Each structure stands twice: as C-alpha cells, then as structure tokens.
C-alpha cells in the first residue's frame, strides 16, 4: 500500500509542476531552436524504430538501455553546434559527455555490449516483467515494448536535454545559476560514480566468494546479506539514483542562467528532469520488490535507511 501512495503522490507533484511550467512559460522557439529540435526529433525517431524492431526480432529488450548513455551526448553536441558553440552549451555538452562515458563503461562491464550489436546481457527487469501477467502475452509485450521501452524512454532521453535547447540562443554571460547548474551537476556525477563503484565492488566480491563454493549465509559480513550496505549504500538505498536525478535537475538551471525563463522559476524544459524522477521511482520500487523476495534482511534495511538522501547509517540486527 505504501508504494502505491508514493507513486500517486509523486505523480501529483510531477504533473502539477509540469502543468505550471507550461502555464508560466509557454513554448516559444526561435527559428534556430526549431531547426535544432527537428534534427533532434529525427535522431529520436530513428532510435525509437531501431529499439523496437531490433528488440522484437532479437527478443533482447535492452536495446534502449545501450543507447541511454549515448544519445544524450549526441543531443547535447548537436545543440552546442547549432548554438555556434556557445560556451554555456559547450560546458553542458562536456558534462553530459562525462556522464555518458561513465554510464557506458558501467553498462559495458555488465556485458551489455557485443560485436553482435543486437545481443549482449539484457536487463534482468525486462525478463522479470515478461514472465508476469499480462506481459507474458506476446501481443501485450509488443505494445509495452513499442510505447514504453522504445517510444517513452527515447522521448524521455531527449526531454532531459531540452534545458540546453531552451537556453541555446542566449547572449547572457555565464553567471550564478550556471555555476549552480554546472557545479551541482559535477557533484552529483561524482556521487553516482562513487555509488556505482561501491556497488560493483560489493557484487564482484560476493560473486567471487560464491564461486569458491560457499553458500550466501557462509560469507563474511556484510556479503552474507546479499545486498550492499557499504559506503554510501549504508545511508541511502539508491545513492546512484539520487546522483542521476540530481545531475539532470542541476543542469536545468542553465535555463535560469541564460535568462530563458521570464520572471519565474518554471520553464517548460523542466519536463524531462521531472519525468525522469517518476521513472526512477518505478524502477526503485521494482528493484526493491525483487530484493525483498531474495534477501530476508532487506525489508529491515528498507525500514531503517532512507530511499535517496543519505541520512542515518544502517545497523544490521544480525
């Protein structure tokens, strides 16, 4: 019941903020922004077609997962180029490139990429969903693949880059809001990088110990729990998600620095970062549901550690 309340409340907040952003700041694009957006939409449309067709033929629905870290780099540099390499857009693109390199390397370490581009390790969440009703029906799964995996996620990846598009024609010198945007994004990038490395260390060590023939309960603490409680993960259940959401929210402030928002805080370009928050909510709920069924102590961890913001440290009862 708690997770449904969380979803409903988050949805209300997200929808309200998006609605206010379009009321206070209706979309008004210059000819250059319209031309740039058309290019971005063409790239996005090609990506949607690729993800759906290849995903359905190969039965590997992680095609979008492979592109998730690559497309924003392309979008950011297209916008930078169309802005005549405006310093604001160039810095934005550099940060997105660093973000994309980190995520691509992480995904590659999990075996997601292959010479056979349609193969590679598929995200376990798609396999779990395909096994459940109503998604075990091939027709329903194809619709889910088309509208959510291929269309919605590609549209979302484009949407999170729109603050750069909204601010690309500005002649205002980089100032306070830009420093907040770029400095905050870099801090959040460091946060999610550290969280990912700690997660990789934990699960690699656990897997090596299990490969020695030991059972999970025979492993030394904290590896015997099965889930990570080290470092940032001892104070936040999803420090990597916190870093990811914070990164794109911070970059939204370029619209304020560029003077793209008149007399208010809201801009239509905040839509992408807000929808990303909602996506990660669903992802975190699914991940925690799976972990709670696999590891007996996980629910105790959920009860004691905050979802995102690092607060009190987890203390095991065992």
Can you describe what's shown?
The protein has 318 residues and is mainly α. The chain has two domains: 1-27 and 171-318, no CATH class; 31-168, no CATH class. The chain contains 13 helices and no strands.
Keywords:
318 residues; mainly alpha; 66% helix
Itemize the secondary structure elements and their pairings:
Elements: H1 2-24, H2 31-58, H3 63-67, H4 71-82, H5 87-109, H6 124-130, H7 138-159, H8 162-166, H9 176-211, H10 239-251, H11 254-257, H12 271-294, H13 298-304
Helix pairs in contact: 1-12, 2-4, 2-7, 4-5, 5-9, 7-12, 9-10, 10-12
N-to-C SSE series? HHHHHHHHHHHHH
Could you describe the largest sheet, including whether it forms a barrel?
Answer: none
Number of strands: 0
Q: What is the percentage of strand-forming residues? A: under 5%
Unreliable sequence segments: none
- What helical percentage do the residues reach? 55-70%
- The rounded Rg comes to 21 Å
Distance between termini? 28 Å
Number of domains: 2
Number of helices: 13
Mean pLDDT: 90
Query: Which structural class best describes the helix and strand composition?
Result: mainly alpha
Q: What would you call the shape?
A: globular
Offer a quick outline of the entry:
With 318 residues, the chain is mainly α. 66% of the residues lie in helices and 0% in strands. The chain folds into two domains: 1-27 and 171-318, no CATH class; 31-168, no CATH class.
